[in-house]
Give the backbone structure.
Amino acid sequence: MKRFETAINSWADATLADKTEEANAAVMEAFFMAAEEAIKNPTPSILLHQEAEDLECKACWAEAEVVRRKILNLKETSENFGILAKAQMDLCGLLRLLGRLEEASQFASAATTSARRAELFPVLVMALECESWCALDQGDFQRALALASEAVQVIEPGKLFDSMRAKAVTHRARCWVACGELSNAESDLTTSWELLHGHSATQALPGPIVTLANWWDTKGQLELRHGRRESAQAAVARAVEYRRELDSPYGLFALARILNQLGEISRAAGDLEAADKALEEAKSIRLNLNLPSDSPSTSNAW
């Protein structure tokens, strides 16, 4: 535990001093220590999480849902509302992937309620974004924007939280685009880009990679709204590049969704060869993931 605390403190000190390479190394050290401890002393909850992840990697979705619900039932007996919120968000993510959007939205709302009771702003930010993604999936753009805006507002100031802030602001930009408020979207994308650029060494980590993928995806949507199809195609192609770096089932699902988007934009731009290639790859990914044929494409949160 002492070594773990030392690593976390090293990360904080390096981040505040703009020593991004040292910060990145400290984060990885803390991650490996936590993983090592989990392997040595697995709790029932950790074992269930591993089982759920293994089933998801095998595309055994029904079985994974059963285990995710077991985890949720286990967390509901505790007084740790932050952990409960995480279990509710995990189940929400699985249901979104399967296209069961109404059920997913209910668990997202429950996660936000739990996160408020936890009184931990990072957990609340995650829950608000999760609920906002569900609102986007269901076409409730104003509600999605309200939730995304609250997520941005509750993040505490300081460099330590710039990565979290960049992610939240990027997501709000997507909501602005959905609402047709393009100048506000442009402003948020500029802000989040500056935050991401300030921590270039951490861009090798999964979190910033997802944010960069979502940034370019949102930029593509913005360019499309302006009628600039070629720019939109180039932006979404960049998003695809970042998505390829994430090989989890959820990452692959997000890759398939954005490849579909790239295919549609390419076709509209008259680039039929690129369109066919992107759409065929998206179809192949979905088949390999063994998703229900009627599972709709959702927004990206992974």
Remarks:
- Residues 178 and 271 are 25 Å apart (CA to CA).
- The chain has 14 helices and no strands.
